[in-house]
Amino acid sequence: MSEPYPDLIARFYDTVYAQVRDGVDNDWYLGRMAAAGGPVLEIGVGTGRLFAEARRRGIDAWGVDLSPAMIARCRAKLSPEDRERVSVADAVTMRPGRRFAFVCAPFRVLSHVHDTADQLRLLDAVHDCLQPGGTFAFDLYVPDLRMIREGVPAHTDFDGEHAPGRRLRRIVHAGPGDLSCQRNRVRMSFRWDDEDGERTGEWTFEMRFFFRFELEHLVARSRLALDAMYGDFAGNPVVADSREFVVVCRRPAA
Question: Domain range for residue 202?
Answer without folding.
Answer: 145-208
